[in-house]
Amino acid sequence: MRDFALLIDVWYRQNKRNLPWRDTQNAYHIWLSEVILQQTRVDQGKNYYLKFIKNFPTIKDLALAPEDEVLKLWQGLGYYSRARNLHTAAKQILSNHDGHFPSNYSDIRQLKGVGDYTAAAIASFAFDLPHAVVDGNVFRVLSRYYNEDTPIDTTLGKKLFTEYANNLINKKDPASFNQAIMELGALVCTPKKAVCNTCPLNDSCQGLRANRVYELPVKSKKTKTRNRFFHYIYSEQNILLQKRTQKDIWENMYEFPLVEVEKQLTPSATKNVIEKTLGLIIEPSPIAEYKHILSHQHIFATFWKLKLNKPMDTSNYIQCNHSDLAEYAIPRLIDRFLEQVNSSSF
Ligand code: SF4
After folding, report:
1. Of 137, 189, 209, 214, which is best to mutate to test ligand 1, by the most ligand atoms within 8 angstroms of its C-beta?
2. How many Å lie between the centroid of ligand 1 and the Cα of residue 139?
3. Ligand 1 pocket, 205 CB below 6 A?
4. CB–CB of 87/63 below 8 Å?
5. pLDDT in tens, 31-87
6. Which of 8, 137, 141 to mutate to test the pocket of ligand 1 (most atoms within 8 A of CB)?
7. Is the minimum distance from the CB of 184 to ligand 1 under 6 angstroms?
8. What is the pLDDT of residue 310?
9. How many angstroms separate the first and last alpha carbons of the chain?
10. Omega within 30 of 0 (cis) for the link into 217
11. How many Å lie between the centroid of ligand 1 and the Cα of residue 167?
């Protein structure tokens, strides 16, 4: 077991990427980077990390910022509940810990949006506490290394792999161990192109020996995907916006007037439904269609143009022009549409 920690430590020192959050023990910065990097590529996450630090240099700055400002800065990263949780947790730290990041695992774990993985990452990276991190990279490395079939998305699997990692961790330098195993998963033991010939663990890797690298890790269930059909109304002159207030994707972000339907209808039937539901009059044919993929949902979005010169009641909506739009946090889907509007004409 000591060999495992030693081998990956030597490899890590020679191969690690230089990332701005790697050489700090500032818990706030580490927390920000961990939340941003969940489900986000490192090169994309890096810019957001730097923007957040610049705009909110301290936890207090983040806690006291209006939610709209936090969401606006997060725009484009997706998974907006992470931004809302980040904001709520900053307020928790301000009111319960006097603005100082809590320094033990259980207090860190109490923060909104902080799960086992993030708590272990902050505890080890910022406070040198011996808590092993178990993220997707770690599951992959360990399931292959031990040729372990227990599904990683079960309670038993999570417990087992956490035990493996906690038994292997170098208690004298838990931060480096955690960084090293995650980096190995990100750069060498990758999902589809594992580079076993350069891997420091290849002599003792049981999955490699059994020729089962790509069968591991095992998952018990396939994630179900839900299809949704959104119809948005775009008005070229006075853009109409509304805030999404319901508990759903993009909560508290802004979007065009929307009608969601259960299934796709013909254009004329859809036009009828939209006009009846919203009391707005639209052109007969849609102007753009997108399939927008989220982790568990596929959004089939159709954009319709508001008919000009028709008297309509638009008083329920925020009305703004293109340059004002920069002040509102809007979903990436609407942004994609606006990019197309700006580069061409419909
Ligand atoms: S030898 Fe291959 S499968 Fe085993 S840990 Fe290394 S990269 Fe992963």
Report:
1. 189
2. 12
3. yes
4. yes
5. 999 999 887 888 889 999 999 999 999 999 999 999 999 999 999 888 899 999 999
6. 141
7. no
8. 75
9. 63
10. yes
11. 19
Q: Please spell the DSSP secondary structure of 11-56, one letter per residue.
A: HHHHH----TTTT---HHHHHHHHHHHTTS-HHHHHHHHHHHHHH-
Show the tokens assigned to 12. 């890590």
**Does the CB atom of residue 132 touch ligand 1 within 6 A?**
no
Nearest-CA residue for ligand 1 atom 8 is 189
Strand partners, 293: 298
Instruction: Give every CB contact of residue 248 below 8 A, 6+ residues apart in sequence.
Output: none
Residues marked active site are found at 34
- Cβ of 271 closer than 6 Å to ligand 1, yes or no, is no
Model pTM above 0.70: yes
d(CA 188, CA 178): 15
Paired tokens of 26: 């500032």
Most ligand 1 atoms within 8 A of CB, residue of 201, 203, 206, 216 to mutate: 201
> Could you give the strand order of the β-sheet that contains 226-234, starting from the edge strand earlier in sequence?
258-261, 226-234, 297-305, 288-293
- Spatial distance between the Cα atoms of 172 and 144, rounded to a whole number of angstroms: 25
Question: Can you tell me whether residue 318 is helix, strand or coil?
Answer: strand
Q: List, in order of start, the domains of the chain with CATH numbers.
A: 2-215 (1.10.340.30), 226-343 (3.90.79.10)
Q: Which two tokens stand for residue 145?
A: 């290394």
- Ligand 1 pocket, residue 199 CB under 6 Å: yes
Nearest-10 crossing angle of helices 174-187, 136-145: 80
The length of the chain in residues reads 346
Please check whether residue 271 is in contact with residue 264, taking contact to mean a CB–CB distance below 8 angstroms. Answer: no
CA 148 to centroid of ligand 1, rounded, Å: 13
Give the model confidence (pLDDT) of 183-213 as tens digits: 999 999 999 999 999 999 999 999 999 999 9
> Of 286, 323, 281, nearest to 304 (Cα)?
286
209: CA distance to ligand 1 center in Å? 10
* C-alpha–C-alpha distance, residues 16 and 59, integer Å: 28
